[in-house]
Structures are given as C-alpha cells and as structure tokens.
Amino acid sequence: MDSTYTKPVDSAMNAVVVDLPPILAQPSAWAYRGEGNANLVVATTMAADTDVAAMGPILKRLGTHHVILRVAKSAHAAAADAPRAHSALDMAAFITHVVNPLFPPVHLPVLVPVRLPPTFLTELRDHFDTTGARPAKRANHAHIDPSQQIALLSPDYARLGDHTLCIEIKPKWLFVKDATECARPNSPPRTPSPIHTPSPVRTPSPSAGSQACRFCMHQQLKAAKDPHYAPSQLCPLDFLDSATVPDAVRALLATPHNNLRVWVDGVAVPVTSPEWSSVAVDTLCDMSSGTNDARVALTTLLTSVLSDLVPVLRTLSAHQQALDQFDPAHVHAEYLALAAQSVDPPHISLDEWRHVIDRYLARRAAVAVGTSPPAVDRFQLLAEYVLSMTLKACFDADPGFQGGQVPEGGGV
C-alpha cells in the first residue's frame, strides 16, 4: 500500500483518508471558486503541463489534475449550543451510503477524503483575507474552520480538460403534488410536440397557482412582493421530456436568475451580461464554426446535453415525489410526536440512514412488481421527508464540451 494512505478512520463507511499531496499543500496552489452556508470550495490553479505523476496516486485515481477541495466553514460568533458542523467524513459517508444508491454510478461525483497539513487552513484563510477573494457578505458571516482537518477532494467538473464548457442547472422540485403537469403560469407557450399540447400564457391567479409546481408558484410570490422582479420563465418540469427540453433551454437563456451557471475553462462567465453566450461559444472554436449566432449555437449545445440527461432527471423527480408523501403540516405533527418520545432531539445515525434507504428501495420494488409495500412508520416517514428535501436541493453540473467532445452524462 502506498505510504500516503492511512488506516480506515470511520468504520461505518470504511473510508480511507489520504494525505493531501505536497504539491497541493500551499494556499497559492488554490483559487477561490465559491461557497455555500456550510462549505467553501477552492480549485487548483496549476498549469496544464503539471506533472500529474508527482501529485500522488489519489489524483491519478481522480483522472485529472484539475480538482476542487471542499473545506468546512464556521460562523464568527457561533452560539455555544449551536449544532456542530458535519465533518467531511460524515458528508462522504452520507453521500456514499444514502444518496448514491438512488442514482446510476455514471452520474455520481468522485469524493475522496484528504487529511490537510496542520497549518493549511489557517494559511488559506489568511490568503483569502489578504486578496479579498471572498464576497464581503460571506466573509463577514463565517470563516474557514481550522479545526476541520479533513476535507473532500473531487474532480473539477468546470475544467476537466484543456477546453471545457460546464453548465450547472438547479432543477429544484421536479413534480407537482396531485397533478400530472404544471400550469406554467410564468412561461410562454410550449413548442408543439406529440407529447405536450401548447398552453396559452396564463395570467397569474390563485386558481393557476393551485396547479403550478412549487418553483413556478415561488416565482409568482417573488413578483407579488417586488413589482420590479421579473419571474423566471423556466418550469423545471420541462427538463423531464426531450420534447420540452428546448423550452427549458430558451427559458434559462432568457431568464437565467440563479438557476443557470456557466464556466469556460474553469472561469465563471456571468450569465447576466449581454455578451456571455458569445464568450462561452467563441472560447470553444469548434462549437462556433458554421454559425455567426452564438446564442443559436449555445442553445443547440444545451438542448443536446440536457436531452441526454432526461433519464437521470426523471429518476431524481421520481425519488423526490416518492419520498415526499405527506404535506408539511402532517410531517410536523409526526415530528412533534416522535420528539415527545425522546429526551434528546431526534437524531439519525448513519446505520439508521442505511436502513431507511433499504426500506425505501424495498417499498419501491414492491410497488414496481404490484405487491403490497411494507407499512411506513413514523421514523421512516420523517427520514424520507428529510431526504426528499435534500434531493430538491440537488444540482447537475455537466461538462458540456471538453475539447469539442460531448462526455457521457453529468454529475448530480
């Protein structure tokens, strides 16, 4: 076994933690990519001719020297009783044993837990403070947590090769409760197709909202609160059929909001700028050949890539809906009943999560073959609802072109 490997740290997932290769141990080797509420993401800045062999066996396992590192954050003034942040091993275990069994392997990201040098996180934090790389709003709220010495390393899907156009979409909620189709109150008429009958543009109204998907209703709510807000024309359910993917693409390009993000060779391209589609297309010469209209070329590319992803998005939709069986009021009542039986707040261990997934998949299999599914108890109901909410926050990052070649699938 290579000397960079250590013994398993978490017996529940049998994870092996790898030391961060020395070539990546300097803060200057990383550039700020983005962050959420709990984690900050940095990407490598090494040149294309970097000696991958010198980067250790783990990077060869990832298949690219373009990688990202996900490090934990903590609030500047966290309350003494604030819940402790989940460790990288906890995250990797949850993804490996709870989320991954729900999707085809080709669409799943590779995650490798790495042990960081003792001073790495402090130096990285100081480096970003000096350069002002982080948005002020984020930097003022939380900082890199130096106590979390294990982070997650994975391929940089925004830059897998020398030339990569990466498209990230957030499909949100991909179903309508007790309905087969969304009313699409914010969208223009659909393209005629054998599957869907075009609907006229609907005027926002309470009756229309009752048949709309959650995303479309939320857009109406935003518009009602702010008269200057232009609702997104996107209906996420259009991602679920190759016949309506062109409608989804046109809506994304017309009103991207925060539902579409684009990177060209690892550099974010602001989709709100008028020339962004030209930048994206012109950077990849093979894509723009034969047309002078960058938006037409990009529309064609996005339609092709997203059409290939219809099966996995349908899988995501099916799990979202199957896991979300009851309305929030019912779920809240069940939670209070379960909490009343326990001295401590309900907590789900990894082993319990694995049993939840096993029972859920067994129930799905029973329904598929027409047999009676097992009953769902209170604990299972609540756990499935939590998992459903997690899946509603999924995004799909698809490296649309790598040197002119369309890859297989994307990463959920």
UniProtKB/TrEMBL annotation:
From what organism does this protein derive? Answer: Allomyces macrogynus (strain ATCC 38327)
Supply one GO BP term.
inositol phosphate biosynthetic process
Relay the domain remarks. Answer: The EXKPK motif is conserved in inositol-pentakisphosphate 2-kinases of both family 1 and 2.
**Region span, Disordered:** 183-205
Task: Name the chain's protein.
Answer: Inositol-pentakisphosphate 2-kinase
Any coiled-coil regions, as ranges: none
Query: Mind naming one GO cellular-component term on file for this protein?
Result: nucleus
User: Compositional bias of type Pro residues: which residue ranges?
Assistant: 186-203
Protein's job? Phosphorylates Ins(1,3,4,5,6)P5 at position 2 to form Ins(1,2,3,4,5,6)P6 (InsP6 or phytate).
Q: What is its EC number?
A: 2.7.1.158
Q: Which domain of life is it from?
A: Eukaryota
Q: Which reaction does it catalyse?
A: 1D-myo-inositol 1,3,4,5,6-pentakisphosphate + ATP = 1D-myo-inositol hexakisphosphate + ADP + H(+)
Which UniProt key words apply to this protein? Answer: ATP-binding, Kinase, Nucleotide-binding, Transferase
- List GO molecular-function terms, semicolon-separated: ATP binding; inositol-1,3,4,5,6-pentakisphosphate 2-kinase activity
